[in-house]
Each structure stands twice: as structure tokens, then as C-alpha cells.
């Protein structure tokens, strides 16, 4: 995969709506962590019936987030996997969307924040168990808007340099959650 790929802005309202549904987010996380699955196995794992899982899988397929594994599917049993996605997929700024689509972006960001807060709550125990895998840093500094934009792009380049897709990772690689956020400190 090319590391110099241009960022892709997720500014399609349909895709934003597809990603803002809580069950669809759980399905995507499940496929990312555990690999291909059927609607039956997804339903069992997530505690929903097969019909509900199947509907949401089709919605994710409609917007290109997952794909059927045709060679593995037989009859009514369809196997699904996450689709190849851009390495640099970014959220749109609110002004990139029509006013009626902005609440969907806000909901998607709210859900992502809730997921991140749940993950953040696991940090102390993870750090105690595996300090070599649970790394953390806190920073504070003064930057111009241009400095911050350059810092962010350098961060993305580092992700591309060191992160591999699961199928390309060496046997001793582990999946790692990585987050970066910046907030103006003078708006507290």
C-alpha cells in the first residue's frame, strides 16, 4: 500500500449515517478484531438475531465498508470481511456538510468519543499488565495553526510508516489502539 496516498474525507452523508449506527460500529469492530464472519456468527457474538445482523451487514456493504467473500459463501451462508479502506480516512469539518447532515457527524463523533473513553478507562490496568505495549504521553505546548497542521501530517506519516494491516503483519505483531487528539488549552 502506498504511504503517500492522499487523505480521503468521509463527507458522504450516506456513509456517515452508515457508520453512526451503534450496531454497525460493533460489527465493524468485530470483523476487524476477529476476521471474516457470517450474519449468524456476528449475531451470536453481538447478541442480535441473524436477520438484524444480516440487514446491518448489507448496509455496511452498500457503502463499501465490508465485502462478501464470494469464494467462501455457499447457498444462504454469506461470509463477510472488512473492505480495503484508505489508510488516511478523515472526518469532514462541519462546514463541509449541508446543515441537515451535521447532526449525523456530531453523532458519529459522540459515539467515537464514548468508545475512546471506554478504551481510556482500560489504560491503567493495561499499563500495569503490559507497560511495553501500553505507551502513553501527555504534552502541552504553543503552536501556530500551521505548526499544528504540520505536526498532524507528520503523525499520519508515522502511522503509515509503522502500522501494518493484519494480513501484512509479522507473527509477533499485535493490534494496537492509537489515538491523537488536540484541543486548544485556552478554551478550558
For the structure shown, list the relevant keywords.
188 residues; mainly alpha; two-stranded parallel sheet; Arc Repressor Mutant, subunit A; 46% helix; 2 domains
How would you sum up this structure, described in words?
This protein is mostly helical and 188 residues long. The protein folds into two domains: 1-121, Orthogonal Bundle (Arc Repressor Mutant, subunit A); 134-188, no CATH class. Helix content is 46%, strand content 7%. It is built from seven helices and five strands. The strands form two sheets. A three-stranded antiparallel sheet has the order 2-4-3. α3 (39-46) crosses α4 (50-62). The longest helix has 20 residues, at 102-121. The mean pLDDT is 92.
Task: Put the structure in a nutshell.
Helix content is 46%, strand content 7%. With 188 residues, it is mostly helical. Helix 3 (39-46) crosses helix 4 (50-62).
Order of helices and strands: EHHEHHEEEHHH
Give the assembly state of these chains: single chain
Percent of residues in beta strands: 5-15%
CATH topology of the largest domain: Arc Repressor Mutant, subunit A
N→C terminal distance: 40 Å
Secondary structure: number of strands:
5
Structural class: mainly alpha
Under CATH at level 1, the class of the largest domain stands as Mainly Alpha
Count the helices. How many? 7
* Largest sheet: spatial strand order: 2-4-3
